[in-house]
Amino acid sequence: MLPLLYSLTAVVIISLVSIFAIYWLISHIANFSRFITPLVSLAVGSLLGDAFIHLLPEANENISNPTVVSLLTILGILIFFSIEKFVRWHHCHDPDCTEGTSVIIPVSLVGESIHNFIDGVIIAGSFIISPNLGVATSIAVLLHEIPQEVGDFGIYTHQGLSLKKSLNLNLLSATTSLLGVIVTFLIGSSLASAIPYVLPITAGGFIYLAASDLIPELHEHKEKSIHSLLQIFYLLVGVALMYSLLLLE
After folding, report:
1. What are the pLDDT digits (tens) for 161-176?
2. Number of domains present in the structure of the chain
3. Is the dihedral of CA 183, 185, 186, 189 positive or negative?
4. Which residue range forms the structural domain that includes residue 120?
């Protein structure tokens, strides 16, 4: 019972701290809208960094056949492509619709929800092994989630959502980590054995979201050279944040 309590407490704290970090930024930075594009750049770096630095290497460590990892990554890209096509078709009610509609929000929400679910599974599995491992894993997830959630918030506000709706979407995706904890304790080892195969699928989704939706969004802005350089800088910051988490592993 204690590992379950520890796990639930950890994911709640992580979710609240991430939301508080976003709220603090909004409250203490004047003209927050100026930072939306840098946040999108940060999200691109975080998504790509997470996919190539964490998810895929972890999958390769647990799956002996690298071809399987590659195929599952492609499957993830295809799944998220299909989700985007379905959402676009559903919005227009016509397969040949050319209406300019953004599908970044639902695709981002699906990807982050899956990722948070996996985080919940990982945290629960760590606490089952030992409290110390659970705490260490929770800290690593927390440091990962803050830039990730801030980046997602930048995506939502960049697409025209209000601050309140953007925060609510962040909170909604965060709740799937609770589901990951509960499912882990209900199913146990059988779920844990499937996680390595879910990781490259999630990585494929993140790569698709960053490359097909967010990077083109950054190209749409006609800005001065310094702004383009800042986009590259914040993208690299996102990658660096993901890389820095290796120090905790």
Report:
1. 777 787 788 778 888 8
2. 1
3. positive
4. 2-25+36-248
